[in-house]
């Protein structure tokens, strides 16, 4: 939405007339003369624009102008006779109330302020958004020592107007820190970085990962007064990981102030030692991995075409051991069962890493957990890593499997090993579970073999946070694989000590895992909003076809149990409540009438996009475009909220009509 030139000039003319009417120019001249007399008489310093604005503000002139330039008139609530139309934007009458934060004086805090951005050149040509206009936004997400923060969304611009402050607790009891006040030397040993992820949300609600950055905050320990300003250059992700996307101005401050700061030499020496130690560990692991791979190839020459993944690139293009992407993750009270965890992971959006140009090649990008969660969508590897971490948190022996699906498409999924030897595959993109029963190729032809229901064809390796196994069985076909991981003739293991040296928590090369956040979505409100939008879309669509629309609210309500049963079945694999639903529908549909229903499932909340998808189904189109006698339509939407504001959206369209032969 943008104003046409004639409207813009008309608005400027109105403002100009108002300023002339108030004689604002004359009052500014008086204030300017008075300020020059008071401020510049002693020493003839330069009078800046800031000084003049400050003087105008002190004398209340700016406030007077703003009061006169209100475009929204007050309306007394009691005088309203009809419900007001929802406004596209609003004018805040009251100043925003800042939330107070309780600061424990016996704790150390790092106050991180983001004071704007610059050089986001991709948005150089972007026009200023008008009030109420929907525009693309930037959101900055932070994680530090089990604490997560999110900035207010700001419009995308070459110089985005970030102005947010985050109070980060440096030492916490929950992380095993003592109760005494920590000094600068102790904080210097805390090597956890502040992980910052920048997300762009477009006008349709689609999210894009813009940048992922690990901020070294300990430079503030050597700063005067415990305050330092840092210009952080953000680099792109994936194929653009060497390209600058913009700069953030950041101010770091310690609370309470340090009694004694460290010298820059001490902090720089500490950083250099940590880098050297990490580099040496990574070098030794690389030497070991090369030796392991040589031994693996010597077992059988065909092993060189198996999908044995030892390293993977993260969003910043950094090669990291695959085991470092896994960590036992406990969801607190947000998820109650492993199957619920699988359902949660499956409703996070799926999108392959973007590739610039054609060729059909797959761009590899295994995201860090924070980047995946903040963006709310990722590739199959991101889903499998998160599901494996959650299942480990629930006490299961879980592994990520790397292999292929039909037509040789690379894929990852999750496997759990039961104490009784049962092998279960978990598809992280759908939440489906499959029991693996291996086929014995040596059995006689008459012996009936189990038919695999899973879509997986080959498997090259399995791994978790502590173990890595390469498949060295004669065939890598999943259906004939035996998952006895203790049998080294079938699975070649990597040294647990070697994996621990580079993948254990606390090593600076492994980003700390963030905790999961509760959903901010009100499921009932969102369900009502989507349902109302769908009713409007259906009515408009039928109107275009020359059909009237009559809604049956009672029938719409009766569809609720079916939607709840569908979600329960997706989560637990148990179907329940179908008899009651069918009985209620039979009672609601009179004799001689026909009932049709069409349920569909989405993981996004865009009603228009969902409606367009529904119309592509001939069954759904038949219901929406139903013709006949006494046609009554019904639609029911049920949103199920999950952690990280992920959601499962179930929609059911239905109709009943009198059958005329």
UniProtKB/TrEMBL annotation:
GO cellular component, one term: centriole
Role played: Centrosomal protein involved in regulation of centriole duplication. Required to limit centriole duplication to once per cell cycle by preventing centriole reduplication.
Coiled coil: none
UniProt domain CEP76/DRC7 peptidase-like: residue ranges: 364-494
Keywords, alphabetical: Cytoplasm, Cytoskeleton
Subcellular location: Cytoplasm, Cytoskeleton, Microtubule organizing center, Centrosome, Centriole
Superkingdom, natural source: Eukaryota
Domain CEP76 C2: 102-259
Name of this chain's protein: Centrosomal protein of 76 kDa
Lineage: Eukaryota, Metazoa, Chordata, Craniata, Vertebrata
Entry's family note: Belongs to the CEP76 family.
Pfam families attached to this UniProt entry: CEP76-C2 (PF15627), CEP76_C (PF24652), CEP76_N (PF24654), CEPT76_peptidase (PF24656)
Predominant subcellular localization, coarse grouping: cytoplasm
BP GO annotations: regulation of centriole replication
Annotated organism of origin: Accipiter nisus
Domain Centrosomal protein of 76 kDa C-terminal: 521-657
Residue stretches making up the CEP76 N-terminal domain: 10-69
InterPro entries documented for this protein: CEP76, CEP76-C2, CEP76_C, CEP76_N, CEPT76/DRC7_peptidase-like_dom, Papain-like_cys_pep_sf
